[in-house]
């Protein structure tokens, strides 16, 4: 039997969700599956096959998923990306998940102008390196529509997008790529070209994250194989580098999802990640939806867990990686890297090549570190037992705060970098050998 279930899912258009081997894991003639996928694509369906397929030879194959939209069913049987377009009455509309409301409410927001996109990025309706990049790419499409053929206006709208958040490389990378896509092209084609390129960037982000999962899986398999029977692989992660931080799959979570789909027993220590609580609010919500065992911890717990043998590996994401392998990521990552190094816990950083900044060698002092509003430190949002969402003060009025959003973990603290091309050491030579000195596929 190839499919355990073949059912329609709530995705737009003709979509089938092919659920394979969730329980039996015994199937899998991958050739037969491929034939079915190709046939469904040929008739215009968006087909989706999740979970690991085990071939008759017992070899583990990575999950197949929709080759066209790369979507993955996540919330109540429905596929979501973090940012996407929808066509209605001859118009193409840009939609996002407003991440500020999660996990208490799932709100879809429409972004109709460059200013909407700029605000959504700056105020973190969307956040996470890949997601910011893809959203900015769609922002350039809206800019191409708004600029009325004026290159000067287009450039100033792009500058507006570029100024929204300074640290993650993906934003500037996506805007630059969009401007390259229209280089030398007549203004009447800018909107069409940038929409096409934005869709490509969003698709690639998803596909690259999927590949990160494929490359990261053997690391988890190896740890699992060395565990006594019944022992879960304990992975610590910081912030949210899950599908919400990209268009799909995530960077740090992709190997975890791949391992879970392959039937490996994983347990995730989720740093709450003050002040915005991306771990407590977003990563745990993602993992919960996926049925992956996890425990939320306050940010100071990781060192203790590592000292006591309760962490097998750390996987974090990255907002910017320098060409010699220094990693800029959510504030607090550096302390985890230090603790991991002191306790011989492997510390991996997962990111797509769009996060690499070839212009910077040493990260400390050279990567712009975003400083955000004091209120993110002095206040906190939560939900009352009544269900009412409230925002309360943690400090007395007038107390000084500082809110650095990112820090840099130097390359020597990092065991390996997991990218869509494979795994390498955090060194200039190894990164160059793997990524070829370019961010382009
Ligand atoms: O400030 P945010 O929420 O945009 O932070 C970025 C992040 O999500 C993290 O630093 C993450 O680990 C890397 S981005 C995938």
What is the CATH topology of the largest domain?
A: Rossmann fold
CATH superfamily of the largest domain: Translation initiation factor eif-2b, domain 2
Distance between the first and last residues' Cα = 36 Å
Summarize model confidence as the mean pLDDT.
87
Strand order of the largest sheet: 13-12-11-14-17-22-23
Q: Can you describe what's shown?
A:
- By secondary structure, this protein is α/β, with parallel strands linked by helices.
- The chain folds into 3 domains: 3-62, no CATH class; 82-202, Up-down Bundle (Four Helix Bundle (Hemerythrin (Met), subunit A)), CATH 1.20.120; 209-435, Translation initiation factor eif-2b, domain 2 (Rossmann fold), CATH 3.40.50.
- The chain is 34% helix and 21% strand.
- The protein has helices at residues 30-42, 114-122, 129-146, 151-162, 169-181, 190-225, 253-261, 278-290, 302-307, 333-342, 375-378, 428-435; strands at 5-8, 15-19, 46-50, 53-54, 60-61, 73-75, 78-79, 83-88, 91-97, 108-111, 233-237, 266-271, 294-297, 313-316, 320-322, 327-330, 347-350, 356-357, 379-383, 389-393, 406-409, 416-419, 422-424.
- The strands form 7 sheets. It has a 7-stranded mixed beta sheet with strand order 13-12-11-14-17-22-23, with helices on both faces. Strands 18-15-16-21 form a 4-stranded mixed beta sheet, covered by helices on one side. Strands 1-2-3 form a 3-stranded mixed beta sheet, with helices on one face.
- Strand 19 (379-383) and strand 20 form a beta hairpin.
- Helix 2 (114-122) packs antiparallel against helix 3 and helix 6 packs across helix 7 (253-261).
- The two termini are 36 Å apart.
- Bound molecules: 5-S-methyl-1-O-phosphono-5-thio-D-ribulose (MRU).
């Amino acid at each position: 039997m190839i499919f355990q279930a073949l059912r329609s899912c709530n995705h737009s258009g003709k979509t089938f969700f092919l659920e394979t081997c969730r329980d039996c894991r015994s199937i899998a003639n991958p050739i037969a599956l491929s034939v079915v996928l190709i046939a469904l694509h040929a008739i215009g369906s968006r087909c989706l096959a999740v979970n690991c397929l085990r071939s008759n030879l017992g070899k583990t194959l990575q999950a197949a998923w929709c080759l066209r939209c790369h979507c993955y069913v996540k919330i109540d049987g429905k596929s979501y990306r973090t940012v996407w377009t929808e066509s209605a009455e001859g118009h193409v509309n840009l939609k996002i998940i407003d991440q500020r409301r999660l996990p208490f409410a799932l709100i879809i927001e429409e972004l109709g102008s460059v200013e909407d996109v700029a605000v959504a990025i700056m105020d973190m309706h969307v956040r996470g390196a890949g997601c910011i990049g893809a959203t900015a790419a769609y922002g350039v499409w809206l800019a191409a529509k708004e600029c009325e053929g004026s290159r000067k206006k287009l450039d100033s709208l792009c500058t507006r997008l570029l100024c929204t958040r300074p640290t993650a490389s993906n934003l500037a990378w996506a805007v630059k790529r969009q401007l390259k896509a229209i280089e030398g092209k007549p203004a009447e084609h800018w909107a069409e070209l940038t929409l096409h390129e934005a869709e490509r960037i969003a698709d690639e982000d998803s596909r690259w994250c999927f590949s990160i999962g494929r490359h990261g899986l053997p690391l988890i398999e190896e740890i699992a194989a060395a565990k006594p029977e019944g022992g879960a692989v304990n992975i610590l992660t910081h912030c949210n580098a899950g599908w919400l931080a990209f268009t799909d799959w995530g960077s740090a979570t992709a190997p975890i999802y791949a391992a879970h789909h392959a039937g490996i027993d994983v347990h995730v220590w989720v740093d709450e990640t003050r002040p915005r609580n991306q771990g407590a609010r977003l990563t745990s919500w993602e993992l919960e939806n996926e049925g992956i065992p996890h425990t939320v911890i306050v940010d100071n717990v990781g060192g203790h867990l590592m000292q006591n043998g309760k962490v097998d590996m750390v996987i974090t994401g990255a907002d910017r990686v320098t060409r010699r392998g220094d990693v800029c990521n959510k504030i607090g990552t550096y302390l985890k890297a230090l603790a991991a190094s002191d306790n011989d816990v492997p510390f991996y950083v997962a990111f797509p090549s769009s996060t690499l900044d070839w212009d910077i060698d040493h990260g400390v002092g050279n990567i712009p570190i975003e400083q955000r509003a004091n209120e993110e430190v002095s206040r906190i949002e939560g939900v009352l037992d009544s269900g009412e969402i409230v925002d309360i003060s943690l400090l007395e009025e007038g107390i000084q705060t500082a809110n650095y959003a990112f820090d840099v973990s130097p390359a020597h603290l990092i065991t390996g970098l997991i990218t869509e091309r494979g795994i390498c050491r955090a060194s200039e030579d190894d990164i160059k050998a793997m990524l070829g000195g370019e961010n382009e596929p």
